Amino acid sequence: MSQIKSDFYRDQFNQRVSKSDIDRIKKRRIQSPHSLRETDVTVYLPNSKSIEQSKLNGICLHVHGGGWVWGDSQHQVAHRCLEMASHLNAAVVSVEYSLLHHDRFDPVGDTLTALEWVEYAGANELHCKPIFVASGESS
Prior knowledge:
- This protein is of the alpha/beta class.
- It has helices at 3-16, 73-88, 107-126; strands at residues 25-31, 38-44, 59-63, 91-95, 132-136.
- Helix content is 36%, strand content 21%.
- Helix 1 (3-16) packs parallel to helix 2 (73-88).
């Protein structure tokens, strides 16, 4: 991603995500229960003042925009993912898929790995109901 875009999205993150919301954002590496393949995701949780995590309605799998070429969920859409988490009372799991021009480029495989984790392990690990939805942008 160009430095200009990086700076723009970093500024957007700093303007749109409060310091108190940072604790609701968790980066983690997950593993598919079938293929043992791993990928990175960012988990966004609802506002703890409004709900207990053990009562989450489910998981929303989110694929950020960028056309498989640039971006990440934290700097690009963290504010939207936090809003979705609170409005849905669900965990939002955003795939940090591999990007073009990196050593390993398989964004579809990364997304499928996240989908398998959400379907087979996510509800147990995040202590929520096994109900799933998906959302995305240009990718």
